[in-house]
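ARCHIVE RECORD
Type: protein–small molecule complex
Small molecule: nicotinamide-adenine-dinucleotide
Source of inputs: curated submission
Record status: active
Notes field left blank by submitter.
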Amino acid sequence: MPQQVRAVVARAVGEPVTIEAVNVPDPGPGEAVVAVKACGVCHTDLHYREGGINDGFPFLLGHEAAGFVESVGEGVSDLSPGDYVVLAWRAPCGRCRSCRRGRPWYCFDSANASQPMTLADGTPLSPALGIGAFADKTLVAAAQAVKVDPRARPEAAGLVGCGIMAGFGAAAITGGVGRGDTVAVFGCGGVGDAAIAAASLAGARTIVAVDVDGRKLEWARRFGATHVVDASAGDPVEAVRGLTGGFGADVVIEAVGRPDTYRQAFLARDHAGTLVQVGVPTPEMTVELPLVELFGRGGALKASWYGDCLPTRDFPALIELYLAGRLDLDGFVSETIGLDGVEEAFARMRRGEVLRSVVVL
Ligand SMILES: NC(=O)c1ccc[n+]([C@@H]2O[C@H](COP(=O)([O-])OP(=O)(O)OC[C@H]3O[C@@H](n4cnc5c(N)ncnc54)[C@H](O)[C@@H]3O)[C@@H](O)[C@H]2O)c1
Ligand SMILES: [Zn+2]
Ligand SMILES: [Zn+2]
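STRUCTURE (tokenized, with ligand):
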């Protein structure tokens, strides 16, 4: 029987989100219905609402979730009702040109549910990042549901499904931060702080946190920042150079998503350094860089989608680090809220009051 559940929907650009009755079909072949227990509010949800991702309104928001599998469709053999899962927005197909070349993290045909969830009047919804988990239940491709240790509480575990994995992987996987490296992170929200935590675990010797908000800088220290720079108080490029022997950092992570911070991050690199862009730009943004610096510094400019992760490999590993007390996922949970608190959570995110508000169901 298809079910009707409560869910948070963005109907039009910039309009406050609303709670709607949403139809969730029974899982078809290769699909699963997941009863959501917790879902973090990520800046990307706000990007969707602001029309910054695409114009596929109405969107069913929420994509950082943990919950229990309720039912699975035909042909699903490795997932059962009752399994505790974190939802992934990447589920490599194994067949596209990227998967076949051994780069499944660039998969071009990542699995999603093939049936739409709809508003009560039948209007199909676009689930954010193919998930849509600000909802009592959601329909996903079974391959998007990654089993993890149920001892990890859902408020913390769900965050691994987007922001934490994106930031962690930006540093540990895309940026390849290693022992003794110097690292700078521009933007210390949930994503940037996860990059800081990963750099710390990897043995980076200097980790400079850059933000324009003093509260964010204090929190960044908890995740392993060795130095903090208030970019509203002076030139952050000079500050990063000053803290890295005058050279700039080996790996610089841009976790804001703006041209000015991208440019600063570019200039804050040492020779042969790596810039990792994880902040999501909007379509109209452009950046101008001095070509001589681009050539003269060498190194690499990379973009990191989802931290170049493989969810089935990396989610259980991050959850194990959490359970072992080595990755402070609880530290990212600033508050828990109900489904009706998402709009206010966007405002709190904009005011810089939270790392993550987490919807609990
Ligand atoms: N690439 C991916 O796969 C991926 C995944 C998740 C999120 N993201 C993106 O990462 C970015 C960060 O997400 P978040 O959830 O941490 O957002 P957030 O809003 O919590 O954090 C952004 C931080 O940037 C800071 N900031 C703003 N202007 C700044 C400036 N000029 N200089 C320095 N710091 C500045 C803010 O104070 C804030 O602390 C967003 O663009 C989000 O869409 C990317
Ligand atoms: Zn593929
Ligand atoms: Zn996200």
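CURATOR ANNOTATION: The chain has a mean pLDDT of 97.
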